Amino acid sequence: MTRTKKTGMKSRGGRVAVIGALGLASVTLAAGPAFAKGSVDITAPHTAHVGKTFTVAARGNDDASSYLRICLESRGGGQTWHRVTCGAVVDTGTDAQATARVKAAQSGVLQYRAVVYGLLSPTDGHPVRQRTSGPVTVDVR
């Protein structure tokens, strides 16, 4: 009878250890950071001629918000970024898009980038910056 009792204790102790380890693993996995999926792409010509019009286009998505809006920003000569245009507000299931037709007024180097904003509703007045593209450079000659 003593032998049966010891075996029963060992199996119960092993069971408790396994359950404890599984519980700890699930808490550790749940506490880890969650990463949203998304992307942002921008296209612009490498060169443009003074006085001519060129197109800058952006497309982006992010699953961290209910609604999205993408905006194009520009800067020239080391200045700060300025908003050029923004696209329409769209549901998360579709890509946000923005297109700008820019007339090159003077020669120099211009940079453009796209910024994806997340919104809680289509009329949200406080959008949150979700993603920013790397800058693309247009050499105006």
Keywords for this entry:
single chain, 141 residues, alpha+beta, 7-stranded mixed β-sheet, 3-stranded antiparallel β-sheet
What is the string of SSEs from the N terminus onward? HEEEEEEEEEE
User: What is the averaged pLDDT score?
Assistant: 85
Biggest pleated-sheet summary: 7 strands, mixed
Number-wise, the strands total 10
Structural classification: alpha+beta
Q: What percent of residues adopt helix (DSSP H or I)?
A: 10-25%
Oligomerization = single chain
Helix tally? 1
The stretches of 5 or more residues where confidence is low (pLDDT under 50) are: 27-32
Percent in strands: over 45%
Q: What is the molecular shape? A: elongated
Task: Report Rg.
Answer: 27 Å
Distance between the first and last residues' Cα: 96 Å
General description of the model:
- With 141 residues, the protein is α+β, with helices and mostly antiparallel strands.
- 21% of the residues lie in helices and 46% in strands.
- It has one helix and ten strands.
- The strands form two sheets. Strands 2, 4, 5, 6, 8, 9 and 10 form a seven-stranded mixed beta sheet that branches.
- Strand 8 (108-119) and strand 9 (128-132) form a beta hairpin.
- The relative contact order is 0.22.
